[in-house]
Amino acid sequence: MNIFIISFNHKKCSIDFLGKINVTNSKIIEFYNLLPFDEKIILQTCNRREFILKSCGNKNYEEYFFDFLSNYFKINKYELIKKADIFYDIAAFKHLIRVASGIESAAIGENQIFFQLKNAVSFAVKNGFAKNYFNKIFMEIFRITKIIKRDTFISYGTLSIPKIAIKLLKENIDIENKKVLVIGTGETNKIIINELFKYNPQIILLANRTFEEAKKIAEIINGLAINFDKLKNYLIDVDVIFSATSAPHFILDKEKVGNVLNNKNKKVIIFDLAVPRDIDPNLASDNIKIFTIDDIKNIQDKNIQMKQKEIVKANKIIESEIEKLFTFV
């Protein structure tokens, strides 16, 4: 079958390390085209990078791929190997089901990863990087995932990154009548916005590199879209900031905005939900409290023990269904 997966995830990799192997949206097509594999799908989330690959022949593609990643990201090859999990054929299929069902997530059972994987598959199919073989395989993977969700309580009571962020916010501030700035219009921030609406903020400001995207969402929620280049002008008024972009550098750093935020007479709470980080950690002060993905993970870890029995049930379903999947390969 020659299917293999190179996985970098939260179990072995820090958030900073995952940030070093991030492919930006503007470079993703170019990155795909550099990979000499029959079919390929790349999944990038806050807590993982999954390179799902199908090769032909007996060439040592694993060694080639680590050489490629090392050259592309300028990271030592052996550091990459040390941080990676590698799966072949049947183990690869089982891994994909475990990822899709949330078993491998930091927040065990979370549903967001299912849709992130579906989006990654759709993108690869649309652009010709995943073809008939992967398309059929993932239809089965998603079918089995739905059985796991239906027949276990793996997703019951699961706190996703956006939900934990809102929970932390509520513990630190009364959201009602507060001004909230949301930087980035990706999936995480869209969920954040939906959650915020339950608590009646005064206004939600949206900033995005593509102004029209921010404007489109702002019109739906009766918010205000702001020009990304004028972000600094609005910081003086906001109480809360959520940032989750794919930028390779800080969106807010101490040198550029430190004086604006620290000159305020009120406290500001910032949630940096990006990988790599959007917010300069040096911005933190008596008036500025910053929560990061690491803070979110600490809360998620406490939920793991509650899920262990459901993981056992889910694994039994995977074992019973995996044979059906192999009728397609």
Could you explain how this protein is built, in words?
The protein has 329 residues and is an alpha/beta fold. The protein has two domains: 3-156 and 307-325, Glutamyl-tRNA reductase, N-terminal domain (Beta Polymerase, domain 2, 2-Layer Sandwich), CATH 3.30.460.30; 161-300, 3-Layer(aba) Sandwich (Rossmann fold). 48% of the residues lie in helices and 16% in strands. The protein is built from 14 helices and ten strands. The strands form two sheets. A six-stranded parallel β-sheet has the order 7-6-5-8-9-10. A four-stranded antiparallel β-sheet has the order 2-3-1-4, with helices on both faces. Helix 10 links the parallel strand 6 (203-208) and strand 7. The chain starts with a strand and ends with a helix. The mean pLDDT is 89.
Strand percentage, roughly? Answer: 15-25%
CATH topology of the largest domain: Beta Polymerase, domain 2
Class by alpha and beta content: alpha/beta
Q: Tell me, what's the shape?
A: globular
What is the end-to-end distance?
8 Å
Sheet having the most strands: 6 strands, parallel
Order of helices and strands: EHHEEHHEHHHHEHEHEHEHEEHH
CATH superfamily of the largest domain: Glutamyl-tRNA reductase, N-terminal domain
Average pLDDT level: 89
Low-confidence stretches: none
Topology:
Elements: E1 3-9, H1 15-20, H2 28-34, E2 39-45, E3 48-54, H3 61-73, H4 77-83, E4 85-88, H5 89-100, H6 112-126, H7 132-151, H8 161-172, E5 179-183, H9 187-196, E6 203-208, H10 211-221, E7 224-227, H11 231-234, E8 240-243, H12 254-262, E9 268-272, E10 288-292, H13 293-301, H14 304-325
Parallel strand pairs: 5-6, 5-8, 6-7, 8-9, 9-10
Antiparallel strand pairs: 1-3, 1-4, 2-3
